[in-house]
Structure formats: C-alpha cells, structure tokens
Amino acid sequence: MKATRRFGSPKNPIPGHDGFTVVELLAVMVMIAILAIVLLPALAGTKSDPRAFQCLNNERQLILAWQMYAADNNDMLPANDFPYLTAYRTFANKSEMRNWVVGTMASPLDANWLPELTDSNTLLSPYLHDPKVYHCPADNYINPLTHGLNIRSYSMNSAVGTTRWTFYNYGSPPLGAAVDQGWLSGVSYSLAATGPWLTYGKLSSFTRPGPANTFVIMDENPYSINDGCLFVSAVATPGNTYIIDYPSGLHGAAGVISFADGHVIIHKWLDSRTYTPTIQPQGGGPGIPFHPMPDDVDNFYLASITSALR
pLDDT tens, 185-223? Predict the structure, then answer.
C-alpha cells in the first residue's frame, strides 16, 4: 500500500497532525491566488500619503487642545467669532478679538505672521507650542496678498464655540454664550442668539447629532480660508444645498475632519464642486453671496455633521 505523501517536520510533529498533503497545500495556494485577483484591482494606483497622515496628526493635536481648554474652563468652549476681514496684528483692542485662533488669512498683515499662533489671545496657544500644527503639509497655496504661504490651514465649525467679538461689537449674544446662527440656514447670515439650529458653547452641549457626529475642525480650502471659522450650511434637501466656505481637497480629493469626541478621519469628497472655490481668494464666509450647489452629495454629509434642529 502506497503511503500518502505529507510535508512536515518529523522531528517536531504537530500533535494530532503529521504534516500537510499536496492537495491541502494546493488549496491554500489557490485561495491566495483568488485573494490576489480580488484585491489587486482595488489597490492599484493607491499609495500612502505621508502629508495626509501628518495633517491627521495636526488635527489630533488641535482637537485635544480644544478639549483641554474646555476642561480647564468649566466646560466652556473657546471663542469662535473672529471678524473675518479685520487684521489682528494692528487692531487696538486685541483682547476683544480673543479667539481659539486669532488672525485672518484675508489680511496681508496676518496671513504669514507666525506670532499670532502663539499669542496669548489665541486661546489654544497654552496647549500648542509649535505653530506648524496649524498648517497642513499639503497646503502649498501662495496667498496673493503676501506672495507667501498661509500660516494656517484649519478652521472650526461655525456652530461650535462661544462669542467675544460679536458681543463687544453687536451686544448680542452675551459674552461667552454659544455662537450665533451665522450661515447655518445656507441662504442668509443671522446674528440671532437663538434660532432653529443648535449651536454649542460647552463641551457638554453636544446633544444632537452627538459628539461623535459633530465636526469641530476641518482643513479648509487654502483659496477660501480667512478667519478661523468654517461656515457650513446645515440645510441639505434635494435641490437645496449650499457651499459657504470650501473644504480642502488636497489629500486626493479628501479632507481631514475632527469631531467633538476627539476622533479624526480622512473623508473622501464625492463632488468636485465641494472643494473647488468659485469665489475671490480668501473670500469665503460672511459678506459674500451664498453658493447654491444643487444636489452636491457632500453637502448632505456636511450638513449632517454640522448641527441639528433644536
């Protein structure tokens, strides 16, 4: 009787198993070949982008600093209502401009002035000592106002944060209250302290859509970025979607987004209009017309992670 040929080490036998048959080995090789056929098309043309991972790490540091600020300030979030065209560098009453980050990329005085990022009126500065954290390594945009790189690539959800500048210049909402309704309606700017949309002035206020589903910081398109506030419409219905400020698509048509619970993702945009500005340089935010983007699928996603109806 001819013995079945098996492969294995007779000196170190596996208990209950004295080797592998040729058929078993062939079966394993066939399975590996099938997996290769299935996976290779999906992996074709892909490669790791170290700049995207550095951007991800930057936002991890920013969102951690934001959470630490709230922990050190009785749950209150830092201000997020910087005047989007007003230069910080030469403004007389700088304390009125205290914000999570001061300065605007729409001013030649601020756009590449690094000291503003470590200034005491930049409320996250005690937690972030390296100005490079504020700049995405993929952001090589040359600001026409300064003919140099912007010092900052990130902005904060306009529904997140507290008021300071708005109080000193408009008297409402109260100092330290949650930010106003802004461009959440998509079609007009509102300084109303209350309205149909939730805004978040405390870390504990993220009731809907919840801390894991409400974005805080995102890399903004370097062409549209000005102040530290990213205005996004919370309205998204069929035929009724809008872009106010443009997200960045510098990571292969993807952007980096951090959430109130601290997690950070790289999100792929599906409609090129989302990250392709049709405005003047550094011209996002209030003071410009809203931008209808009918049925931009990314707007539905952005609206869902920006705010919720009260």
Answer: 988 888 887 899 999 999 999 999 999 999 999 999 999
pLDDT in tens, 6-33: 444 445 554 555 565 766 666 666 666 6
- The closest alpha carbon to 101, from 92, 185, 114, 91, belongs to 114
Residue 218 in contact with residue 277, Cβ under 8 Å?
no
- Residue matched to tokens 């630490």: 68
Structure tokens that stand for 130 in this block: 């390296």
Alpha-helix runs per DSSP H in the chain: 22-43, 50-72, 115-118, 165-170, 297-306
Integer Cα distance of 276 and 213 in angstroms: 25
Q: What is the pLDDT of residues 244-266, one digit of tens each?
A: 999 999 999 999 999 999 999 99
- pTM for the full predicted model: 0.83
User: In the chain, where are the structural domains located?
Assistant: 6-42, 51-306
- Partners of 257 in the β-ladder: 218, 265
Residue 134 tokens read as 């504020």
